[in-house]
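Could you show me some protein's one-letter sequence and the numbers that encode its backbone in two labelled lines?

___
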Amino acid sequence: MYKVVLLTADYEGWWFFSDWRDHVVESIDCESYEEMEQRYIEMCKMLDKKYKLNQTGKYGMTCFYNTCDIRYCDDCDDDVQIYHTPLMLINDKLCEEHVKYLNFLK
């Protein structure tokens, strides 16, 4: 029911392109809303230490990245930036309360 997932893709997670679930690289099932919040905060803190940059967008979601973390895109014939976006899900739908957790970031 409650879940924290990490989306890693060549776009910021708040765009929710149709294939966004194909880009989930980590998924944590939680027993309660409170556990989901705690796991989300832990994941964000870990990502904040690992990546030098972060950006906040739609729904207050934050993505983390390094400028050197790029991959070549055959379709666009260019390098693309890779973003890591943690998400909170309730019944596999976005929990839109991400913005209240931003105070612990730099």
User: Anything to note?
Assistant: The mean pLDDT is 88. The CA atoms of residues 22 and 66 lie 22 Å apart. The radius of gyration is 14 Å.
